[in-house]
């Protein structure tokens, strides 16, 4: 029968038209994001050992880490920057962190007018 695809498409449209509203009112209500959402980054400085595995496994040169050795020959973080301009939000850096010091947050509003604001300095 000709027009079967048209009738099937119109039936879906009519169901959605008379059904419940599924649109979210974004600025007034924030959406519920899944647990595995990759938003902005968060660093737990106490857990980070400065091994640079997160920077080495990143497909783009996004993460910059600088460390200094203290008197006990232990590494201390002096700089931890993430350039979101080139980040793919793939999560390789989080998966390869041996101490799970690097995590993602639920923050998704990362747009800016200035490119310099896309470089996150994660040390407090």
From TrEMBL:
Coiled coil: none annotated. One of its GO terms (molecular function) is quinone binding. Keywords: 4Fe-4S, Cell membrane, Iron, Iron-sulfur, Membrane, Metal-binding, NAD, Quinone, Repeat, Translocase, Ubiquinone. It comes from the Bacteria. Residues 39-68, 78-107 form the 4Fe-4S ferredoxin-type domain. It holds the Pfam family Fer4_7. The keyword Disulfide bond does not apply. GO terms for cellular component: membrane. PROSITE patterns: 4FE4S_FER_1 (PS00198), 4FE4S_FER_2 (PS51379). InterPro entries: 4Fe4S_Fe-S-bd (IPR017896), 4Fe4S_Fe_S_CS (IPR017900), NADH_quinone_OxRdtase_chainI (IPR010226). This is NADH dehydrogenase subunit I. It comes from Selenihalanaerobacter shriftii. The lineage of its organism: Bacteria, Bacillati, Bacillota, Clostridia, Halanaerobiales.
């Amino acid at each position: 029968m000709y027009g079967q695809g048209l009738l099937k498409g119109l039936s879906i449209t009519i169901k959605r038209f008379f059904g419940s509203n599924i649109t979210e009112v974004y600025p007034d209500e924030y959406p519920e994001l899944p647990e595995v959402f990759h938003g902005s980054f968060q660093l737990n400085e106490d857990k980070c050992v400065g091994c640079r595995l997160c920077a080495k496994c990143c497909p783009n040169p996004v993460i910059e880490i600088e460390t200094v050795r203290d008197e006990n020959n232990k590494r201390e973080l002096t700089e931890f920057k993430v350039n979101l301009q080139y980040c793919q939000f793939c999560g390789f850096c989080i998966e390869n962190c041996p101490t799970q010091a690097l995590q993602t947050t639920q923050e998704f509003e990362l747009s800016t007018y200035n490119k310099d604001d896309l470089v996150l300095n994660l040390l407090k």
